[in-house]
TrEMBL record:
Keywords: Cytoplasm, Differentiation, Neurogenesis, Repressor, Stress response, Translation regulation. It holds the Pfam family RWD. This is Protein IMPACT. GO terms for biological process: cell differentiation; GCN2-mediated signaling; nervous system development; regulation of translational initiation. Interacts with GCN1; prevents the interaction of GCN1 with EIF2AK4/GCN2 and inhibits EIF2AK4/GCN2 kinase activity. Interaction with RPL39; this interaction occurs in a GCN1-independent manner. Associates with ribosomes; this interaction occurs in a GCN1-independent manner. Associates with actin; this interaction occurs in a GCN1-independent manner.
């Protein structure tokens, strides 16, 4: 029993960290010990017309055998409209029993709000909230945020029928995040086979700055069309559990055929749990920027139908 509880706790913690990375200030911790959270959802982040607060409590049995306990808070949400939205959330849970579903719930609610905003009825007045954040960059540690040229030759034995897909894919570098002298930067490449994963890693390690990073955490997901399963794996590179958390984020976002590497250059100050937040934020930002994130409907279908397949270790 205790072992099962530990597994649920780990999955919950990974989902909570992923949600915080995805939604930032929209995500709020009400009671960390009781696992109660609230997220403010609107139809448009920059110019919201309709807003709703979703409050959830995660029971010990979630996500294995029990759904989150939730409450929908909005002064305009009443009657049939409330019942319809509740039914939609419960249907998502039924379709994805045993899976993490908070992301699907949030995006389903956002879809409902967007549809509502497109109707002729005006929405309630909501004050616009903006915030500018300055991002520090250490020029001697970070790479230019631009794709590298595609390189086609790296002495690998490649069969003729796989030559085209086993070329080194283009690699993009994300905007770095610096906190207390530690710098984090994500690198992304499209991959369709494990050999490409090796090639991307080899290419990245040719860069002295990346090779000198304290940690190079990575995860990848490759969709196997014939088996309708995912080939996926991750690596902590000395940052305990960071690879698994990164892979969990990619699962929640339902990305496919992509690899993300997050480099961390340690600055001498311990960051505690904040380091995982920065790793996930870096990864999410570059996945969104490169349009790898799916619509909630596609995510729901994928989570409901696809089985996962772990690959053998790369190194």
């Amino acid at each position: 029993m205790a072992e099962g509880d530990t597994g649920s706790d780990q999955r919950q913690n990974e989902e909570i960290e992923a949600m915080a990375a995805i939604y930032g200030e929209e995500w709020c911790v009400i009671d960390d010990c009781a696992k109660i959270f609230c997220i403010r959802i609107s139809d448009d982040i920059d110019d919201p017309k309709w807003t709703l607060c979703l409050q959830v409590m995660l029971p010990n049995e979630y996500p294995g055998t029990a759904p989150p306990i939730y409450q929908l808070n909005a002064p305009w949400l009443k009657g049939q409209e409330r019942a319809d939205l509740s039914n939609s959330l419960e249907e998502i849970y039924i379709q994805n029993i045993g899976e993490s579903i908070l992301y699907l719930w949030v995006e389903k609610i956002r879809d409902v709000l967007i549809q509502k905003s497109q109707m002729t009825e005006p929405g309630p007045n909501v004050k616009k909230k903006t915030e500018e954040e300055d991002v520090e960059c250490e020029d001697d540690l970070v790479l230019a945020c631009q794709p590298e040229n595609q390189v086609k030759t790296l002495d690998f034995d490649v069969s003729e029928n796989r030559t085209e897909i086993e070329e080194l894919p283009p690699i993009d570098h994300g905007i770095p995040i610096t906190d207390r002298r530690s710098t984090f930067q994500a690198h992304l490449a499209p991959v369709v086979c494990p050999k490409q994963v090796k090639m991307v890693l080899a290419k990245l390690y040719e860069n002295k700055k990346i090779a000198s990073a304290t940690h190079n955490i990575y995860a990848y997901r490759i969709y196997c069309e014939d088996k309708q399963t995912f080939l996926q794996d991750c690596e902590d590179d000395g940052e305990t559990a960071a690879g698994g958390r990164l892979l969990h984020l990619m699962e929640i976002l339902n990305v496919r055929d992509v690899m993300v590497v997050v480099s961390r250059w340690y600055g001498g100050v311990l960051l505690g749990p904040d380091r995982f937040k920065h790793i996930n934020n870096c990864a999410r930002n570059i996945l969104v920027e490169k349009n790898y994130t799916n619509s909630p409907e596609e995510s729901s279908k994928a989570l409901g139908k696809n089985k996962k397949a772990d690959s053998e270790g790369l190194i």
